[in-house]
Specification:
Shape: globular
Low-confidence stretches: none
Number of helices: 5
Distance between the termini: 16 Å
Structural class: mainly alpha
Mean pLDDT: 89
Helix content: 55-70%
Order of helices and strands: HHHHH
Radius of gyration: 12 Å
Number of strands: 0
Length: 100
């Protein structure tokens, strides 16, 4: 649910299916629970990095920009669900600081 709220706020939409590519829907990030299925895990990485990239575009010159970019890199390097959850939690903290 936390990822969904982050995606909805980032894309400035009200329904999980209004986000581009339906990336606010649970099935977009549920792939992080499939550590042994590289294809599903990659789909979740792609969804999360898209959300983070939109944050960079919406807030390009803030004190948080470099931190968001580092989260994008960490997302692509993540190998476990726990790593992904930590990235999502950090992104939520940043989004809250940005007023989302």
């Amino acid at each position: 649910m936390r990822y969904e709220a982050l995606a909805l706020a980032t894309f400035n939409c009200t329904g999980k299916y209004c986000a581009p590519f339906k990336y606010a829907a649970q099935d977009s990030y549920s792939g992080f629970g499939h550590e042994n299925n590289p294809e599903r895990f990659f789909e979740a990485q792609r969804a999360l990095t898209t959300v983070l990239t939109v944050l960079v575009y919406r807030f390009p010159k803030t004190e948080h920009t470099e931190r968001i970019i580092s989260l994008i890199d960490r997302t692509w390097s993540a190998k476990t669900q726990n790593e992904a959850v930590a990235i999502i939690n950090e992104a939520i903290d940043i989004a809250e600081n940005l007023g989302l």
